[in-house]
TrEMBL record:
<comment type="similarity">
    <text>Belongs to the FPF1 family.</text>
</comment>
<keyword id="KW-0472">Membrane</keyword>
<keyword id="KW-0812">Transmembrane</keyword>
<protein>
    <recommendedName>
        <fullName>Flowering-promoting factor 1-like protein 3</fullName>
    </recommendedName>
</protein>
<feature type="transmembrane region" description="Helical">
    <location>
        <begin position="6"/>
        <end position="25"/>
    </location>
</feature>
<keyword id="KW-1133">Transmembrane helix</keyword>
<dbReference type="GO" id="GO:0009909">
    <property type="term" value="P:regulation of flower development"/>
</dbReference>
<dbReference type="InterPro" id="IPR039274">
    <property type="entry name" value="FPF1"/>
</dbReference>
Length: 130
């Protein structure tokens, strides 16, 4: 839906490694979550029983366990790596205005980044509970 595209667009504009939180778009409102580890993307509190999310390439059923694997899949879909920001991994697809920005450290690759990839690559990736 259009609201997902607006959410991702706002995240792409506002997400920066210098920020001390994560921008969340929910119910037409954008807000900064200061401690993103304490709150999930949907606004609910994460407890010790929360499930870990994984990004899965649908055709191969492969879980993306590293940026090397993810970059291979994105490259095969026409995404090109940008090297402008040393703190981020960024990918752009020439045929679109889309930009995928990911934290340099794979351990900081969170569900909001996964959903950004899913929205920009319909029917190619899924986010699943592990």
């Amino acid at each position: 839906s259009l609201s997902i595209y607006i959410y991702i667009y706002i995240l792409a504009i506002l997400f920066s490694p210098e920020m001390s939180g994560v921008w969340i778009f929910k119910n037409g409102v954008v807000r900064l979550v200061e401690n993103p580890g304490a709150e999930s993307v949907d606004g609910g509190r994460q407890g010790s029983n929360s499930r870990r999310k994984v990004l899965v390439h649908v055709a191969s059923n492969e879980v993306m366990t590293s940026y090397a694997n993810l970059e291979r899949k994105l490259s095969s879909l026409g995404w090109e790596r940008y090297y402008d920001d040393p703190d981020l991994l960024q990918f752009h697809k020439r045929s679109t205005v889309h930009l995928i920005s990911l934290p340099k450290d794979f351990n900081k690759f969170k569900s909001m980044h996964m959903y950004d990839i899913v929205v920009k690559n319909r029917n190619v990736f899924e986010v699943r509970d592990m």
